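TA notes, week 10

Several of you asked for a full example with nothing omitted. So below is the full record: structure tokens for the whole chain, then the designed sequence directly under it. When grading your own attempts, check the secondary structure regions first.
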């Protein structure tokens, strides 16, 4: 299973768990019950392959983490959703945004660019072009406002007479 497929399943499970209030771990366990999961394969090719242990771990961490930090993530969505009232944001768009923001903030093993790119690509399968552009804009603003300044080394941190480090050849 690709990481993209695991991410999409995590978003779908997070979306469903948020709607029902079900415990995320219980929702994931029930969803991947062999008989239930096998029945889904005929409905959607996304479920054609059973996730590996690594994929299941990613899905569970994502669903549980997004649920645990939902209030924080929704606050960030509200902060960067310029010109959009929070109640205007569809549930699927919010689920996609929460997943991408969670990955960026709490899953350092996932490249930030991959989280953002995948969110936009997944949104294309669920939303119209206006919402896809909105998701792209919110994630871009979020990244610039919350993340990118943390990663860039400050110029004043390096002494003026100190030469830049050379790369090994």
């Amino acid at each position: 299973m690709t990481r993209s497929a695991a991410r999409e399943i995590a978003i779908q499970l997070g979306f469903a768990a948020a709607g029902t209030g079900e415990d995320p771990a219980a929702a994931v366990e029930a969803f991947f019950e062999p008989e239930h999961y096998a029945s889904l394969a005929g409905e959607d090719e996304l479920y054609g392959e059973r996730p590996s242990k690594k994929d299941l771990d990613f899905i569970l961490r994502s669903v549980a983490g997004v649920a645990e930090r939902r209030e924080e993530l929704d606050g960030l969505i509200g902060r960067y959703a310029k010109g959009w009232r929070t109640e205007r944001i569809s549930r699927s768009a919010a689920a996609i945004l929460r997943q991408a923001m969670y990955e960026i903030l709490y899953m350092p093993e996932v490249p930030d660019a991959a989280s953002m790119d995948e969110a936009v690509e997944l949104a294309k399968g669920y939303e119209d072009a206006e919402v896809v552009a909105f998701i792209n804009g919110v994630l871009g603003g979020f990244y610039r406002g919350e993340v990118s300044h943390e990663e860039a080394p400050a110029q004043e941190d390096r002494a003026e007479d100190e030469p830049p480090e050379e790369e090994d050849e």
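Residues 69-150 form a domain with the N-utilizing Substance Protein B Homolog; Chain A fold (CATH 1.10.940.10). Use that as a sanity check on your answer.
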